[in-house]
Structure formats: C-alpha cells, structure tokens
Amino acid sequence: MTTDSMDAVFQALGNASRRRILDILKGLPGCSVNDVCRYFDTSRIAVMKHLRVLEQANLIVSQKTGRTRHLYQNTVPIQMIHERWTTEYSALWAGRLTEIKYRVEAKPKIRTGKGKRDGRNR
C-alpha cells in the first residue's frame, strides 16, 4: 500500500458522514445510491461527493446495473493499514505477555493462612 493510498483512506475515514456510509453499506451490501441518500438530510450531490471520496480511497466498490449503482464496502485497505502497524507489535507483545505468564505460573504459591489469626488487633 502506497503512502498516497493510505492518506486517501485516512482522509476518507476522517469524516463522520463517510464513516456512516460505510456502516450503512456494511448492513446493506449492494444497496443503491438512493438507499444511502435516505439516511442523510443533505442533498444527493453531497452524498455523491462522499461516495466519490470513499471510492477513490478504495473503501467502496460500485457495480452498475442499468441505471442503478449497487454499492459494497471494501475493507481490504483498512485491514492493510491495521496489519502494517499491528502485526509486528502484536508479535512482540504477545511474546512478552507469554513470558510474564510463564514466570507468574512458575513462582511457588504462598499460603495465605486462611482461618488463622495473625495476631494483629482488628
């Protein structure tokens, strides 16, 4: 993934209306532009501008059938960004947490002395 394509994804996700469109497409895959417009109080042109930004960022894919555009969410760019920063760090921290787990489990258990008075005044 190039820097420009990552910038386009972050720019697209930086707007609440575009994130809402992605949520709509997640719940209604294949819906039309008119279906998406029904969720907004803005003009169709404003929604189309948001759709264009999402499409340029490759976050949505449209398929034209006759006069109708069917819209689908594409999560691949988001997954690629996620993997870029988490895979390396996840492996590092997973290894360290496993180390801590083994150390804690290897320590001898200390008896708490339940049921015995420890001699302190209460």
Task: Provide an overview of this structure.
With 122 residues, the protein is mainly α. The chain has a domain at 3-74: Orthogonal Bundle (Arc Repressor Mutant, subunit A). It contains five helices and three strands; from the N terminus they run ααβααββα. It has helices spanning 3-13, 16-27, 33-37, 44-56, 76-106, and strands spanning 31-32, 60-65, 68-73. The protein has a three-stranded antiparallel beta sheet. A hairpin with a 2-residue loop joins strand 2 (60-65) and strand 3 (68-73). Helix 1 (3-13) packs antiparallel against helix 4. The longest helix has 31 residues, at 76-106. The radius of gyration is 26 Å and the shape is elongated. The termini are far apart. The model has no long low-confidence stretch (mean pLDDT 88).
User: What is the CATH homologous superfamily assignment of the domain at 3-74?
Assistant: Winged helix-like DNA-binding domain superfamily/Winged helix DNA-binding domain
H/E topology pattern? HHEHHEEH
Mean pLDDT: 88
Q: Strand arrangement, largest sheet? A: 1-3-2
Q: Can you summarize the main beta sheet? A: 3 strands, antiparallel
Structure summary, number of beta strands:
3
Oligomer: single chain
Q: Give the terminus-to-terminus CA distance.
A: 65 Å
Pick out the low-confidence regions. none
> Roughly what fraction of the amino acids lie in strands?
5-15%
* Tally of contiguous helical segments: 5
Helical content, roughly?
A: 55-70%
CATH class of the domain at 3-74: Mainly Alpha
The shape is: elongated
The CATH topology of the domain at 3-74 is Arc Repressor Mutant, subunit A
CATH architecture of the domain at 3-74: Orthogonal Bundle
